[in-house]
TrEMBL record:
Keywords: Membrane, Transmembrane, Transmembrane helix
Gene3D superfamilies: Spore Coat Polysaccharide Biosynthesis Protein SpsA, Chain A (3.90.550.10)
Keyword Membrane: yes
Superkingdom per UniProt: Bacteria
UniProt name for this protein: Glycosyltransferase family 2 protein
Membrane-crossing segments per the record: 309-335, 487-505, 511-534, 546-579, 599-626, 633-651, 689-707, 714-735, 755-775, 787-807
Low complexity composition-biased segments: 50-62
InterPro entries linked to this entry: Nucleotide-diphossugar_trans (IPR029044)
UniProt-listed Pfam families: Glyco_tranf_2_3
Chain positions covered by the region annotation Disordered: 23-62
Length: 1063
């Protein structure tokens, strides 16, 4: 016969088994010892009036019930309150057992028990040592209670903190029908009875505690339908005496919660249900363990699950508990939930607790219900995972509800009506049409990158860029020791990702491809970030889309992309995100992770445009000085993250403060454009967009005049004024001169004025967004709706008009596909074990220039360079170049000088007939061929014994042996040096101050009589090593740790800020 759904099926013989249960299992193991320790005087019967209850009629089908209330009192006050609640019951118990558990005893309890005796309740007393738990002594006490043989005996356990409501006992008894072993009440908060503390015990099969309902849930009757549970807490629990004695009571080795869970679990297996009476309320003072399960309770629940698992499945359950606790704990720690992670990890010791085995062997209670029939009583794994995720996310609060509603509004109507889709379509089309000259160039060679404008082009892989940043000596040609920007590491990481793309991994310059992708996709990326940043100031979607379109169609935006100014492109893409993030950091509801993410984006922007980092750090210092506690933490993030991630590059900025005003592609020659045109957002060569940008600036000025309290408008005005000052002052601020060998060598360099114009445009757009969102209520009437229509119409018209003009005139033709000037044989020699160099000679209007090209990557984007005096080796090569082209004389042949300095090939770009003849006639130079307007000669000299010149070589008499090296002669370990007398390294003497050269482990010092580092090797030298080493390795390791920590803190996993808690 089957019961109702959800109720465990009980076998037919369960009732017969319990009918014949004797008293032989009433007191076992520790409980029996406790029972023997009780003296006769510990249970005393008080005088009481005879019961007025009538003898049950023979016609009654339900056997009479005798209820014994066991009250465990820890103090007289608690005892008095519990007894008062007991006497207020509309169904009084038949018997009372008062257990004295006070530290110093309750003393004379006659005054406490007199009202009980007057109510006709039989009174018994006992004592419980202060260090004894009620679960340990309860079996012995129940065993010694008088037994009424005419009906069922029920035991109602009330601890000192329980305050049962008047109808509690009546409802509990009513729920204790046939086949019920225990009835659990609803525990509510004594201070607020509308708050549920606990309703039964809910766990998974593996013992994960999942309280349902959660402590503190408002009681609205939503849980009154809950009937069955796997177990219930002892507080207020009504227990069938026969069931309790048959189960041998609690297992004290499992603790409080574990013992309660184990008792209910065994009762269910024995065919005696554990039911709940949600309408029977018992008030308690909530403990911390009830509000949040403690690690000890979690371990107890796990041990109870292991004790009740099938013997064959127990090892697998233990393995699952260990793995899930370990993985879950570590994941929660990563998600910035260290407390929850510690709780998960606290379950691990339960797997190895030997007491669990003893609990399995204790108490041979009947097992009338199959384990599978109890599945409905346990929390499912899916529900447990959902609860864990919800707890990790934390409470959402009113602010999150507003955000959720805003998100629904954002998504309302579907994607086809969403402005972000059309914004991306428009900007992608604009970018593709405006970059038609660039894409036409890329069709010839997409894997080489671009050159022209501020892009210098070059061959650079991820590994080469990483070595360039990590090594203490780096750079092309003779190299240098100045620390490089962290942007080199970012470029190396992106180049590594490109290298994994099929078809692009073998490209000539992965770094060049990354920069090309950035140029081509700059406008869509900038529009996307601008749209998101505009949400900080308004929630009007189409207005945000219009502002984003206006942002990417201005004259400085087009100039930044058309001239390949990587720093300006980064400013175009990241300035809206960083600016909006700084504004949000000033608000009390700003999430800490959002501020850290803003600081990370600011650090990336500062690595390309250093002045942007200075501004963000200044904003962070302002929050530190004038903000409250929450804003100060935001200020710490804005100050610390950019500075920590800058690393040793700060030393370079300190040595040359002018670099703060420059950046990757952020310098220009003095702009001849008139001041008034610069103020209107006009750059040289872009006059057609003047009036559209001017209209945008005029709209921003009008928006600043709209009345209303708008702190963001003041920030927009300050931003616009700062941009205007930069725009007007930058052309007059000379920070350097164009390097020799470049077009326009010696020309004065100034900061790029377009950066100030972008800041000016940003201030105007923010003013428009803020004004449209905070117009006075009186202006929103029918007579003033034109104020709302004005920005909604003018802004899109300005944006579309400017975009059309930019598309018609394109980005210009400054950018072209970069071509490798060296032949493949020269590239192979540079990147092979010889690590040789190629001398590239060009004739320009200012004269003949040359550069040494090896495996070390040079700057791919023009930046402010610091002039340094030439080294001796550089002077020798310059003299040899002049000699080979017939512009000078020397005592040595040019090929000898070239070979001595590791030059294996000479490439002349667009040589004249006279130059070709001179080079062909130079001894030791053999023409290899010509390609794309260049001619290549191979260098062969007696200096290297006719072999290919190398970066390092061993000399012994007239013989020369190549030493396999990498960039800047680093050997990456020991190399064979048998038979060599002298080690010659084709580097500068400054290089020898930082590189460490060892012979058989002994450090060598460079000779001072040569223009290149030369080392005398000791006799019988077997191995040599050249270690260029890392520059500031400890600092860079700390920089990497700071990045990992910042990325961890930037994870959006913290609980949302409740605005009510902020007040």
């Amino acid at each position: 016969m089957r019961g109702p759904p959800g109720v465990p099926r009980v076998r037919a013989r369960a009732r017969r088994t319990f009918r014949h249960l004797g008293r032989s299992v009433r007191a076992r193991a520790p409980q029996a010892q406790e029972a023997r320790s009780l003296t006769v005087g510990e249970v005393v019967t008080q005088r009481s009036l005879p019961s007025t209850s009538a003898t049950p009629s023979r016609r009654t089908t339900t056997p009479p019930v005798t209820v014994t209330a066991v009250v465990v009192a820890r103090s007289r006050d608690d005892a008095g309150q519990v007894l008062s609640s007991l006497l207020a019951q509309d169904r009084l118990p038949d018997r009372l057992l008062l257990v004295d558990g006070a530290l110093d005893g309750l003393g004379d309890t006659s005054d406490l028990l007199a009202p009980v005796a007057d109510a006709g309740i039989e009174v018994l007393t006992s004592t419980l040592g202060p260090r004894r738990g009620i679960r340990r002594i309860l079996p012995a006490m129940v065993d010694r209670l008088p037994r009424d043989g005419s009906g069922r005996d029920l035991v109602w356990v009330l601890t000192s903190r329980t305050r049962p409501h008047p109808e509690a006992l009546r409802l509990l008894v009513a729920a204790s029908g046939r086949g019920v072993g225990m009835v659990g009440p609803k525990l509510v908060d004594e201070r607020d009875p509308s708050r549920i503390v606990r309703l039964g015990l809910q766990v998974t099969r593996t013992g994960r505690i999942v309280p349902t309902p959660v402590a503190g849930t408002t009681d609205q009757g939503q849980h009154d339908g809950d009937v069955d549970a796997v177990a219930a807490p002892l507080d207020g629990l009504l227990i069938d005496r026969d069931t309790y004695e048959a189960l041998d009571g609690h297992d004290p080795a499992l603790g409080d919660l574990g013992g309660d869970l184990d008792l209910g679990w065994r009762s269910q297996r024995a065919g005696r249900r554990v039911v709940l009476a949600p309408r029977a309320a018992v008030a308690v003072r909530p403990t911390a363990a009830e509000l949040r399960p403690t690690p000890d309770h979690r371990r107890q629940a796990r041990r109870a699950a292991l004790a009740r698992a099938h013997f064959a499945a127990a090892p697998f359950v233990a393995l699952w508990i260990a793995l899930s606790s370990l993985v879950g704990g570590l994941a929660l720690v990563v998600l910035k939930r260290p407390g929850m992670g510690a709780d998960e990890l606290a379950s691990l010791p339960a797997v190895l607790d030997v007491r669990t085995l003893r609990s399995r062997l204790r108490g041979r209670a009947p097992r009338e219900v199959a384990r599978g029939d109890l599945d409905a009583l346990f929390v499912t794994p899916r529900e447990a995972r959902r609860r864990l995720v919800d707890e990790a996310r934390g409470s959402t609060g009113p602010g999150a509800a507003v955000e959720a509603r805003s998100l629904e509004v954002e998504r309302g109507g579907g994607w086809l009506t969403h402005p972000l889709l059309w914004l991306l379509v428009a900007t992608c089309a604009l970018s593709a049409w405006s970059a038609r000259h660039v894409t036409a160039q890329l069709r010839h060679r997409v894997d080489s990158g671009l050159v022209g404008g501020e892009l210098l082009g070059g061959r650079a892989t991820a590994g080469q860029l990483w070595d360039s940043w990590w090594m203490t000596w780096h750079g092309p040609g003779w190299g240098g020791a100045a620390e490089q920007s962290p942007a080199v590491v970012v470029l190396a990481a992106l180049s590594g990702l490109v290298g994994w793309v099929p078809g692009l991994g073998s490209g000539h310059s992965p770094a060049g491809m990354v920069l090309t992708l950035l140029v081509v996709t700059a406008l869509p990326l900038a529009a996307l970030t601008a749209y998101g940043a505009a949400g900080t100031f308004t929630d009007r979607r189409w207005l945000r889309a219009a502002a984003a379109l206006a942002w990417v169609t201005t004259a400085p935006a087009a100039a930044a992309v058309g001239e390949g100014r990587i720093g300006a492109i980064a400013l175009l893409v990241l300035l809206p995100r960083v600016g909006a993030g700084v504004v949000r950091a000033t608000r009390r509801t700003a999430a800490p992770s959002a501020t850290v993410r803003t600081a990370l984006w600011a650090a990336l922007l500062a690595s390309l445009v250093p002045l942007a980092g200075v501004v963000v750090v200044a904003a962070g210092l302002g929050l530190l000085l004038v903000g409250d506690a929450r804003r100060r933490w935001a200020g710490v993030a804005l100050v610390a993250v950019p500075l920590l991630l800058a690393g040793p590059w700060l030393l370079t900025l300190q040595a040359a403060p002018r670099r703060l005003l420059a950046g990757w592609g952020m310098t220009a020659t003095q702009d001849p454009t008139a001041v008034d045109r610069l103020a209107l957002g006009q750059l040289a060569g872009g006059a057609t967009t003047t009036w559209w940008t001017a209209a945008l600036l005029a709209l921003g000025a009008i928006a600043l005049l709209v009345p209303g309290r708008r702190p963001a408008s003041w920030a927009a005005a300050v931003c616009a004024l700062a941009g205007l000052a930069w725009t007007l002052g930058a052309p007059h601020l000379v920070i350097g001169h164009r390097a020799q060998g470049e077009p326009g060598a010696g020309a004065a360099l100034t900061p790029w004025v377009g950066a100030g114009q972008l800041l000016l445009v940003a201030g105007a757009l923010v003013a428009v967004l803020v004004a449209a969102d905070t117009l006075p209520r009186a202006w929103r009437g029918a007579g003033h709706r034109r104020w709302l229509v004005l920005p909604a119409l003018v802004l899109p018209v300005v944006a579309i008009g400017s975009g059309v003009v930019v598309g018609q005139h394109s980005y210009g033709d400054q950018l072209a596909t970069w071509r490798e000037p060296r032949p493949l044989v020269a590239v192979a020699a540079a990147e092979g074990p010889t690590a040789s160099r190629t001398l590239v000679v060009e004739t320009t209007d200012s004269g003949v220039s040359y550069r040494l090209v090896g495996s070390e990557p040079g700057p791919l984007v023009r930046d402010l360079t610091e002039s340094s005096p030439p080294v001796p080796g550089e002077e020798q090569v310059a003299a040899a170049v002049a000699q080979v082209l017939g512009a000078g004389e020397g005592g040595r042949t040019p090929s000898e000088v070239f070979a001595e300095h590791g030059v294996s090939h000479v490439v002349i770009v667009s040589p004249t007939d006279a130059q070709r003849r001179l080079v062909d006639a130079s001894p030791g130079l053999a023409r290899l061929g010509s390609s794309a307007g260049t001619i290549t000669w191979a260098v062969r000299s007696d200096v290297t014994g006719g072999a290919v010149p190398s970066r390092a070589r061993l000399e012994a008499g007239d013989t020369s042996t190549t030493v396999a090296t990498g960039a800047h002669a680093d050997t990456d370990g020991d190399v064979d040096a048998v038979g060599g007398d002298t080690l010659v390294v084709a580097e500068s003497l400054d290089w020898s101050d930082r590189a460490v050269v060892r012979a058989d482990g002994r450090r060598l010092e460079a000779a001072t009589h040569s223009a290149i580092p030369t080392y005398e090797l000791p006799d019988d030298t077997e191995d040599v090593s050249i270690d260029v080493g890392a520059g500031h390795p400890v600092w860079k390791a700390g920089q990497a740790l700071a990045l990992v920590l910042a990325l961890y803190l930037a994870l959006p996993t913290e609980r949302r800020v409740d605005p009510e808690e902020d007040e």
